[in-house]
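Usage example:
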Amino acid sequence: MGPASMIVLIIAAVVFSLIAIFASKFVLKATRNKQKGEPYECGVPTQGKTWVRFNVGYYLFALIFLIFDVELIFLYPWAVAVKQVGWIALVEIIIFFFILFIGLLYAHKKGALKWT
Amino acid sequence: MDLLLVDWALVFEKLILIVIVVLASLGIALYTTFAERKVAAVIQDRRGPNRAGPFGLLQPFADGLKLIFKEDIIPLTSNKALFVLGPGLAMVTALLTSAVIPWGSALDLDGRTVPLQIADINIGVLYIFGVVSMGVYGVMIGGWASNNKFSLLAAIRGASQIISYELAMGISLIALLMLTGSLSLKTIVEQQMGGGWGGLLGWNIIYQPLGFLIFLICAFAECNRTPFDLSEAESELNFGYHQEYSSMKLGFFLFAEYINMFISSALMATLFFGGYDIPFVNEANLAQSWGPNIVAFLGVIALLVKTVLFIFFFMWVRWTVPRFRYDQLMDLGWKKLIPLALANMLITGAVVLWLNK
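Running the assembly step on the lines above writes:
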């Protein structure tokens, strides 16, 4: 019954969101004009394109995050079964971390973790 | 034939539970906005909202009505489909997390056991992580689709911050999972029952103080609360990623933040503070004299009291601590919390194995 009630909850959440988002459409008729449709940037007319290249630092963090997040998923089964698998698994995890740590150290040395 | 074999009472009780949980989250989020203004007022030696109704208690309804009646503006240059999807996703993911939290033990209705939890799945903690990660998309899509430089910058900041702190959060939870040996939140709560000192010694906070601290800091970052509210820093980014939003869509973003706060408070109470465990009371004995229903009800109250205390803490911090700079935020996440969480995890693993022999 667990997964089924979860699906019901998902449907309930989506339905609620849809109703609430479109409720205001029926309450009030929106008027449109060009000035109203402009992006608000402190009242100054917007300059140039918005979707431009931004700081590469965000990408670097996202990449490192990806590595660590995958690693995190590997750790969950071990964490749950830690009492059964014993010391050998702990040593293996430490080796696993050591390799990752070298990677993190490399990223650190390259300046990827430094925010400029 | 299969359709007739479905336990309709079960379906019915789950439906009622889902409706109650969703409405309760919304109601609590509604009143959290009010409480936040009152707490801010107390801390800043003001009165706070006190005009609408007795003590201003109707203020959140007035605010909600105002948001519905506001004109819904979609910028002409924005990506319209994504612009609507952003707040919707933020709201849906905020509501979904409540599925695996056990709100109380089981009710006993005419010999039927009705657990006060929407879904007791054996991967509860993992599910929460999945849903919380999806919350990034609401912020990211909403900010990007606005086609506003402030929104875009805020969205990227927010996404980057949330994913950075998710790691430390996950690692601090792994240390907790070693103690419990289960990913089901119900099992985790049941393990915390009993123990010395009126039951307080059974709580996970006793065994994982450092893990709890890391989890708490990361919860602040995940909810975009001060001191980690860089994605909506008014002094730098006007209004953050929801700058172009108006009407109920803006309401959704603000509301989702408060629901997230409520759910993460409930989660902290569940994982580290015994969940619906009532301190200084032996539930099993009480259930024999008073009946299980009253005990279950008291358990729900106990969980809500713990949750409200955490929500108060969230607000207290918001009105006390100034905002981080972005490089400080990244340094704290990557160079302090993650190594600390890793050390905590490895030491916990070693200690668990040592004591297990």
